[in-house]
Amino acid sequence: MRRWWHPAIWAPAVVALLVLAVVWQLVAARLVERGQTYLLPLPADVVAELVGSPGTYLSDAWTTLSTALLGVLLGGVLAAVLAVLLSEVPLLARAILPLAVVLNTTPVVAFAPALVVAFGFGRTPKVLVTAVVVFFPVLVTLLQGLRAAPPDALMVLRSLRASRAEVLLRLRLPSALPALFTALRVVLPLSVVGAVVAEFVAAGSSSGLGTLITTSAANYQLAPVYAAIIVLAVMGVALLGVVVAVERRVLARYAPGRR
């Protein structure tokens, strides 16, 4: 298996980014010639914004990232516990899953005002909105992984009169590890989106990349908006990279045949 530093791994992405930067420069320069600077900033202006105010972007990025991680922790733990319960009690699954589907199909922005009223201004409503965003993907993916335990191994454990707890700990949970990491690869970058959306719709904070984007857009300052978007993109890619690295190590140790 090729390592990440092999050119075949990183070269296509770098080329795509360079092409995107060139196209961005050409389009933005054309808009500047037409006097339409309000549509797209020049890449140089965005870079200057990032270089000129690194502390602001680092501070706001940490605010958004911490909100996202707290939301993943809350929503992920609740979803994991519920997935275990539903895998052990099929009747409960038939009762709960339709409600989870309704929750997932309801626009998350509809929850934000009610959460602000219930919990006040500050971080709590934003964490809860993020938790709602990540809850359903973790629940469904992990539940599928728990139900996908190898039938032969399950039959052997039952023939040995293993308890339900032993079957869960020795077979179902290790078998569900690939599904768990699949869910994390989805929800960690998604949690950043959830945190930013929460900062858009749940007022009460003067920091965070979502707040920075909203404030800058209201003042017709495009360079900070695009700078914040770039920071968010880097943040999402970094979170995905961390999950992939941890996944390889964990699966190599606890589920070597399921990587």
Describe what this molecule looks like in 3D.
The chain has 259 residues and is an all-alpha fold. The protein has a domain at 58-149 and 175-254: MetI-like (MetI-like fold, Orthogonal Bundle), CATH 1.10.3720.10. The chain has helices at residues 7-33, 43-52, 54-88, 90-105, 111-119, 123-147, 151-159, 164-201, 209-218, 222-254. The radius of gyration is 22 Å and the shape is globular. The mean pLDDT is 85.
Count of DSSP-assigned helices? 10
Structural class: mainly alpha
Question: Could you tell me the number of beta strands?
Answer: 0
Average residue-wise pLDDT: 85
CATH domain class name of the domain at 58-149 and 175-254: Mainly Alpha
Question: What does the radius of gyration come to?
Answer: 22 Å
Q: If classified by CATH, what would the architecture of the domain at 58-149 and 175-254 be?
A: Orthogonal Bundle
Roughly how many Å apart are the termini?
A: 12 Å
* CATH fold assignment of the domain at 58-149 and 175-254: MetI-like fold
Uncertain residue segments: none
Summarize the amount of helix as a percent range: over 70%
Percentage of residues in DSSP E strands: under 5%
Largest sheet: none
Question: What are the secondary-structure elements, in order, as H or E?
Answer: HHHHHHHHHH
